[in-house]
Design goal:
The chain has about 425 residues and is mainly beta. It contains seven helices and 28 strands. Keywords: Repeat, Ribonucleoprotein, Ribosomal protein, WD repeat.
Length: about 425
């Protein structure tokens, strides 16, 4: 494990002044060099990862409250604000790249501790005009516009889930306080006469109980999409529920005696983590490759789960992410642990000095050629182990499929960007 403990990030971003609670990379790869981050003080930053510069920085909840403040309202008391950022994310519309540059807008959302989700837009040409000033350490003056606000009727800290449905539509899953209720909000692009997307239509499509009627599950802790048809929901009671986006419950299991903090459903594999630092991997048994007509029927097939492996970390898990053959787990003991699907730890990264709060993966289709995914001093650099494992590390054909890029947000006020060669790490772990 010598290599794993000396593995260094590509670079570390250090512009925040408080613990970073969340980060997000564009999950459709349209704007692959962009990343969002948010901290407990309520500051949201938009980064260009190729330039390693902040393009936009603003206090999300404060700006949103100014938009709606009236003269009759009493100003909130300092120190009692719930402005911390819980989640950030891009609203991914694949057809944006076809728009003229001067008409191209970036849409994203921020979820804050005040139980509000804010949807924003910023014109890209304004970002890059303003970013020229960033080199002189002046704040960006790019205008960010509030497009819409969605109230989140939950007093806990469950973050919203988001998935791209089509080139013009994205869906948000919003947690409620009671009965495991989840409401699904659809976000459509609204185009102008020239065909450029300049606004959004936001509406609640439907709501349903993800807990079912037979079990008392308590508060929703996490919602995660498998794809546009299926999602998994983790509960305070230790239960995990597999449901369709039409509201049909396909199965429910008791993963832990304690609270289930997080869950992910990838293909036919389910992952769950607990408040005590336990991580479990299940095989999902049953036919999940069913057509949409079956998703709303009473005879929709049920699913079962079989435990494949379990492990316990020294401290609790702050987050996890899954892509391809790789599972990345961020821990409260400041480490990043990389697992393969057999449950073996293939690497441990120890760069952070605070709890790892979120991990965001670069889409696999662009991870092998993303311009920020290399050391700028040695553009096609890879270490000796990578060279032996991958052969020619300079060509995208030789590394496609097993190179992973991801960001990790930490309580040490930093976001680290990582490039991992899965084959190389697996070889060094043997």
């Amino acid at each position: 494990m010598t290599m794993s403990r000396t593995h260094k990030p590509l670079f570390v971003l250090k512009q925040h002044s408080s613990a970073i609670s969340t980060c997000a990379i564009h999950d459709q790869g349209v704007f692959v060099n962009f990343m969002l981050s948010g901290d407990v003080d309520g500051i949201v930053k938009l980064w260009d990862l190729e330039l390693r510069q902040v393009l936009l920085s603003f206090p999300a909840a404060s700006i949103a409250s100014q938009e709606f403040r009236t003269e009759e309202e009493v100003p909130s008391t300092p120190g009692l604000k719930n402005e911390g950022v819980l989640q950030v994310g891009f609203l991914s519309f694949a057809d944006q790249s076809d728009s003229a540059e001067k008409e191209l807008y970036l849409f994203f959302y921020t979820q804050c501790r005040n139980q509000q989700l804010y949807i924003w837009k910023v014109r890209l040409i304004d970002l890059y005009v303003s970013s020229e000033e960033a080199y002189s350490l002046c704040p960006s003056e790019a205008r960010v516009d509030l497009v819409n606000t969605i109230s989140i009727p939950q007093h806990g800290f469950c973050t919203v889930a988001c998935i791209c449905l089509s080139s013009t539509e994205t869906q948000l899953a919003i947690p409620h306080d009671s009965n495991g209720i989840v409401s699904l909000w659809n976000v459509h692009t609204v185009c102008n006469a020239s065909g450029a997307c300049e606004n959004l239509q936001v509406y609640c499509s439907h709501s349903f109980s993800s807990a079912g009627t037979m079990i008392k599950c308590g508060t929703i802790m996490m919602i995660s999409y498998r794809d546009a048809s299926f999602m998994v929901v983790a509960f305070e009671s230790g239960h995990v529920s597999l449901v369709t986006t039409y509201g049909r419950q396909l199965g429910v299991i008791r993963t832990f005696a304690e609270t289930t903090l997080s869950c992910l459903w990838s293909g036919n594999t389910l992952f769950a983590s607990s408040a005590e630092g336990r991580l479990q991997c299940y095989s999902v048994l049953g036919d999940v490759e069913i057509n949409d007509s079956h998703l709303v029927c009473d005879d929709c097939p049920s699913l079962a789960c079989a435990l494949l492996w379990e492990t316990t970390l020294p401290k609790g898990l702050g987050c996890m992410a899954v892509q391809g053959n790789l599972i990345v787990v961020g821990s409260w003991d400041h480490t990043l642990r990389l697992f393969d699907f057999s449950g073996r730890v293939i690497s441990i990264f120890t760069t952070h000095s605070g709890a790892v709060n979120q991990i965001s993966m670069v889409p696999s289709k662009v991870s092998s050629y993303a311009s920020f995914g290399y050391d700028v001093r040695r553009p096609r650099w890879c270490d000796a182990v990578t060279s032996r494992a991958s052969g020619n590390c300079g060509g995208s054909g030789s590394i496609g499929g097993h190179v992973y890029l991801f960001a990790s947000a930490s309580g040490d006020y930093t976001v680290a960007l990582w490039r991992v060669d899965f084959k190389a790490l697996t070889a060094s772990a043997n």
